[in-house]
Amino acid sequence: MDSKVNPYSFAFTSLANGDGGSYGSYYSLPALEDERIDKLPYAVLVLLESAIRNCDGSQITKDDVEKIMDWEKTSDEQVEIPFKPARVILQDFTGVPVLVDFASMRDAMSRLGDDPDKINPMVPADLVIDHSVTADVVRSESAVQANMELEFERNKERFACLKWGSSAFHNMLIIPPASGIVHQVNLEYLGRVVFNTNGVVYPDSVVGTDSHTTMINGLGILGWGVGGIDAEAAMLGQPMSMVLPGVVGFKLYGTLRNGVTATDLVLTVTQMLRKHGVVGKFVEFYGRGLAELALADRATIANMAPEYGATAGFFPVDHISLEYLKMTGRNDETPPSPGGAFALPMGFLPAGGAVSLLQPDSFPSVSGGALHHPPPLALLTPRGPGRRRSGGSAHAEARMARRTGGSALGRGVRGAVRASGRRSEAAATRAAATAAGEARRERTRSGGGPGPAGSWRSGVGAQEAAR
């Protein structure tokens, strides 16, 4: 953007690289010298920076910037703000219609006598082909290759269209089939944390055409799922209209005790947030417990945002995020020390870069939990993540099921639950398998078979049913 027409051009600051040179320039939020900024959650800072950087008096105005700065008041008033994400991510089911629309616009340009090559995404767009695979072949060493061949055979025309698009359009990257799941590719390869475009440095943000785009929030990149029209508009450089969200702070403290897995933690957090009520809001995680969570655990919690109803579950950038970038070979795409060179002066990273320590009064609504709280072997009922069961409660339900006729099922679950209290999750799984084997042998001896609703009939019951 031309800083001459931006009313916040005075905040356009050079970003020194420590060697006497510069990474580029950025719009410094501290340079605005507005005390309201100090009270904004990190997720809202990303929205604010985008509004300031793209403020042109037309699509995004100073009034829009003021709405975000006054977030403490306006977040409860359902005010709308424009937002321009740094990039867009698509999967093949929703990406093909977008590609066809861009091709149609090129045809229209050609009919008008203009250059069709002018039609390209204005922001980086990544399309990951991952929604067309089906597991036709299983339990075979050649299953992967066989399924891949079937995938290419069934989707030949669609893949040909996508391959054409990969070379026809600029600013669009298409990840071929069998490269991985879109969210995994986004987290491990596409996410940048810091963008540097034409000498302008700014935080990464993304919208995607899949509800679980939220997984990227575990890396400190604000992102969520949108519809195909919104994604296409963003690719054309149009700002998205969104309601300025409220933010619920979730404080994490303590450490995970032995035997507690990331799954146990995620299901506990999901249950707590569903109970608290976070629909349409951002959830921002903070506290010293963040230092105890690996990036994979954060990504798993962030990925569950649709399940607990939030627009995004955001983990601010810290040393764990930066180490993950380095581990996955992306430190060359960002300043060598984003924490000190960019995130720290922008206010996105606390001094020292260790953990996010926002005070509770930064959030109008606060929840939280101890990392040592989730019990080992949290069980999920078929009705959804809101009906998580701890080992103890599952044990009690299994005993009740046994009294009401589900003896074999109750014995299998009870054996697994008892094992979880003494040993690891793997031991619990083995115990459940052993109990299930004993139940099968008991049915074989009694001549029984499977009955309705997952129960098992006795030999007499099976004979009566056969009659």
Textual characterization of the structure:
The protein has about 475 residues and is α/β, with parallel strands linked by helices. It folds into four domains: about 10-85, no CATH class; about 85-235, Aconitase, domain 3 (2-Layer Sandwich), CATH 3.30.499.10; about 245-315 and about 355-380, 3-Layer(aba) Sandwich (Aconitase, Domain 2), CATH 3.40.1060.10; about 390-465, no CATH class. It contains 17 helices and 17 strands. The chain has helices at about 40-55, 60-70, 70-75, 90-110, 145-155, 155-170, 180-190, 230-235, 260-275, 295-305, 305-310, 320-325, 340-345, 390-405, 405-420, 425-445, 460-465; strands spanning about 10-15, 20-25, 80-85, 85-90, 125-130, 170-175, 195, 200-205, 205-210, 220-225, 240-245, 245-255, 280-285, 310-315, 365-370, 380, 390. The strands form six sheets. It has a five-stranded parallel β-sheet, sandwiched between helices. Helix 14 runs antiparallel to helix 15 and helix 15 packs antiparallel against helix 16 (about 425-445). About 40% of the residues are buried. Belongs to the aconitase/IPM isomerase family. InterPro entries: Acnase/IPM_dHydase_lsu_aba_1/3 (IPR015931), Acoase/IPM_deHydtase_lsu_aba (IPR001030), Aconitase/IRP2 (IPR006249), Aconitase_4Fe-4S_dom (IPR036008). Its cofactor is [4Fe-4S] cluster.
